[in-house]
């Protein structure tokens, strides 16, 4: 049953391997719970009360509401698939509300923090240090997701048109303009990693193997720790900073949505909160009637 759902997610919904793995992990945890805690041998036997018991167990374990809602979303998708495949007559998840989440405003890096983070003197004067700086600059210059950066290939870059092709969620490709400084660093990177072929990943380790998500997180975290006191120190903070800084400089939300690869405008709305906070600070500091 789960194998058919996995095939559906990969082939029909065209989700990434990492997303499918995360969904299946949540679903298998749910199936384990209803079998060994509730005595249900098949997911088709579940009722609303069983779903509520599972949600309550997650909360009792101390999971935050955002994590619980993510798992609940995975189960919703699973039962919707079973319903459409006529494997269940009544979908037990219908009517189960998501938990109320605390709104958490992620702070973007300031311009000074970005300057400190990308300062060439902050990196070892070797090709690994220069690669690390290029990684950070690439994340910020294009507002990339972690998976998007890891999947960039040499032939993703069109030097003639100074553009780069990025494969986003659900294998949706977008073309982004390259900054002149990025092109300069890309040429330097290619010359130092001359063993890379056109279809190879841009960013690899010393052995020429692709970087994995954990390695990328470790690289970004280590440099952010030195440059900023921000709580969030992963690759996403650079994507968030990219969008926030564009908005602060007057870019419209529709353009930012296209650059970020968001499917709809609502996904981009989070960046308006950070910008409004910045505008309030400027207003209160500079308005002539403040005193």
Describe the protein in words.
The structure is a single chain. This protein has 291 residues and is mainly α. It has 2 domains: 2-84, DNA polymerase, domain 1; 111-234, Intergrase catalytic core (hpI Integrase, Chain A, Orthogonal Bundle), CATH 1.10.443.10. Helices cover 54% and strands 4% of the residues. The protein has a 3-stranded antiparallel sheet with strand order 1-2-3, with no helix packed on it. Helix 2 crosses helix 4 (65-84), helix 6 crosses helix 10 (236-248) and helix 10 (236-248) packs across helix 12 (270-286).
Oligomer: single chain
Number of helices: 12
Total beta strands: 3
CATH superfamily of the largest domain: Intergrase catalytic core
Helix and strand composition category: mainly alpha
What is the terminal-to-terminal distance? Answer: 67 Å
Radius of gyration (CA) equals 23 Å
CATH architecture of the largest domain: Orthogonal Bundle
Q: Based on Cα principal axes, name the global outline.
A: globular
Main beta sheet, described? 3 strands, antiparallel
Unreliable stretches covering 5 or more consecutive residues = none
Strand content of the residues, in percent?
under 5%
Please provide the ordered H/E string of secondary-structure elements: HHHHHHHEEEHHHHH
The CATH class of the largest domain is: Mainly Alpha
């Amino acid at each position: 049953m789960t194998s058919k759902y996995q095939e559906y997610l990969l082939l029909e919904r065209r989700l990434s391997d990492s997303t499918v793995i995360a969904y299946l992990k949540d679903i298998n945890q749910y199936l384990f719970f209803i079998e060994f805690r509730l005595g249900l041998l098949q997911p088709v036997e579940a009722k609303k009360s069983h779903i509520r018991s599972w949600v309550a167990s997650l909360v009792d374990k101390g999971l935050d509401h955002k994590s619980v809602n993510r798992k609940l979303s995975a189960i919703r998708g699973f039962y919707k698939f079973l319903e459409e495949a006529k494997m269940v007559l009544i979908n037990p998840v219908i009517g189960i509300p998501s938990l109320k989440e605390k709104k958490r405003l992620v702070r973007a890096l300031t311009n000074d923090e970005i300057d400190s983070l990308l300062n060439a003197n902050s990196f070892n004067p070797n090709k690994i240090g220069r690669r690390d700086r290029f990684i950070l600059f690439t994340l910020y210059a294009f507002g990339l997701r972690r998976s998007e950066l890891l999947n960039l290939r040499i032939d993703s870059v069109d030097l003639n048109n100074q553009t780069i092709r990025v494969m986003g969620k659900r294998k949706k490709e977008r073309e982004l303009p390259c900054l002149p400084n990025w092109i300069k660093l890309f040429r330097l990177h290619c010359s130092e990693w001359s063993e890379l072929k056109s279809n190879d990943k841009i960013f690899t380790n010393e052995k020429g193997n692709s970087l994995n998500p954990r390695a990328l997180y470790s690289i970004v975290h280590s440099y952010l720790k030195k440059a900023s006191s921000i709580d969030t120190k992963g690759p996403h903070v650079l994507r968030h900073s990219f969008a926030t800084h564009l908005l602060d400089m007057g870019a419209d939300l529709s353009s930012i949505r296209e650059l970020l690869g968001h499917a709809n405008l609502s996904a981009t709305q989070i960046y308006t909160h950070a910008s409004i906070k910045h505008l309030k600070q400027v207003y209160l500091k500079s308005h002539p009637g403040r005193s």
